[in-house]
Amino acid sequence: MYLKELQENWDIFGQEDPLWAVCSAPEKKNNKWNIQDFFQTGVARIGRLRQWMDENGLPGQRKAALDFGCGVGRLTQALCGHFDTCVGVDIAPSMIKKAKEFNRHGRKCVYRLNEDNNLQSFPTGSFDLVYTEHVLQHIRPQVALHYIAEFVRVLKPGGLAYFHCPSQAPSYAYPEDGILCSVEAVPEALSMSVGSVAELPVKVTNTCAHPIGTGEGVNAPAKIVHHWLDLNSDAAYHNHGYLNFPAGVVQPGETMEMDYKVPSPGEPGEYVLVLTPADYFGRPIGNGDNAASVPTLVRRREEAAESEPTVSAKRPRSESHVVPEELVRTVVEAAGGRIVDVVSRQKELGGLRTSYYYVTR
């Protein structure tokens, strides 16, 4: 059931904005990636891996490579420049479809749908390289650890498994009495169609005595979350979306402006859109008086202008998980692997720590 839900989420991402879902630069959202530029980022990334492989003599051979969670093939295509054959696997049919369309290496590159919590379609010792980056973080730890054991199993002796995984959750420094801010939305009312996305200008004011955000000496990030109230049934639809505050610090009394993109509910009707400030973990800030409420009419699709964008009524969700390094080590060793190197990075004090593993057997 969990993998089915995971597949549905990423299949929608693959249908709506596949390049951004794979490489989530904020300015590239809503299908703004140039395809050539997008695939060039993969060439650069695999080039850095190739340098490590050259310097460390792993893998022993460069015949077959596996790209796990390949998406549309950004990195699989780049790997084809260094290995005889490459296989990309992904859980989302829409991603695999696009990857096949983008393939420029013919039979040298193969894409497969993998809907299992293992790699049972590949025999033990199949690949010289197993590669994955920015994938395991979106999978629950118990499942991610099982995949890691599979990476070792399908690896040839003397091969290399390279994978990335967040290893320590962020520990942000909020003041003891908390933070507080208010949200104001423009316009005061909204009309949209089922399956469309509206963009609302919002103003956020820091109404507490402490700086909010991330910057020098400040480590109290915040975001806006939204949910829908259905006036026809009194139902509430939570966790519908969010927008992080941009990098920087908002001083007490200061106001900043943001553009909030809102996907429609899945059914037509009369709703109230509620925009609420929250901390990094999505916990609402304040008692609700500081939220913005926007009456919204949601029309049927056929009533809307054809120029409005089409998106899935069901909103996809990208999970974020952490797997401690000691658990990864235990699983790798139990599977018969050996960790050659671990490189850990932390972009900001108290922020998320990510680890990059180099494993052989």
Question: Can you lay out the helices and strands and say which pair or pack?
Answer:
Layout: H1 2-16, H2 18-22, H3 35-56, E1 64-68, H4 74-79, E2 85-90, H5 93-102, E3 109-113, E4 127-132, H6 141-153, E5 155-168, E6 181-185, E7 190-193, E8 197-206, E9 212-215, E10 218-220, E11 222-230, E12 236-244, E13 248-250, E14 255-263, E15 269-279, E16 292-299, H7 325-334, E17 338-346, E18 353-360
Domain Methyltransferase type: 66-163
Protein name: Methyltransferase type 11 domain-containing protein
Pfam families: Methyltransf_11 (PF08241)
* Oligomeric description of these chains: single chain
Tally of individual helices: 7
Describe the strand arrangement of the main beta sheet, using strand numbers: 3-2-1-4-5-18-17
Relative helix content: 10-25%
pLDDT averaged residue by residue: 91
Number of strands: 18
β content, as a range?
35-45%
Secondary-structure content class:
alpha/beta
| Topology pattern, helix = H, strand = E | HHHEHEHEEHEEEEEEEEEEEEHEE
